[in-house]
Amino acid sequence: MSFWESSSGSWDAVVTCFFLDTAHNIVEYIEIISRILKEGGVWINLGPLLYHFADMYGHEDEMSIELSLEDVKTVALHYGFELENHYYAAFWTMRKKKRVVASKEEVLQQLDSESKED
């Protein structure tokens, strides 16, 4: 018996953080999360769907099932979940320039003058 089978219906909460897109089969992940949660249990997810497997499998490897966010929500609904909250997060990548252009005071002055223009 696997850990997941022995944990059926025993968890109050499951938190997946930058995890779902590691699945070759995201539907299987959702099925397991549904199975291990108690009735009324909470699933909290944080992280993008940036899948890593699209170009990495050969003929003998398991194909990757890479669903859109809307499809993930549809699958979750099928497994008995209901969406309570959907937060839109700010996510970006920035690179610092080699030379700092402005001091903190100059940046604050610029922001102040822009807010007065609005």
Automatic annotation (TrEMBL):
Source organism superkingdom: Eukaryota
Record's protein name: Uncharacterized protein
Source organism: Catharanthus roseus (Madagascar periwinkle)
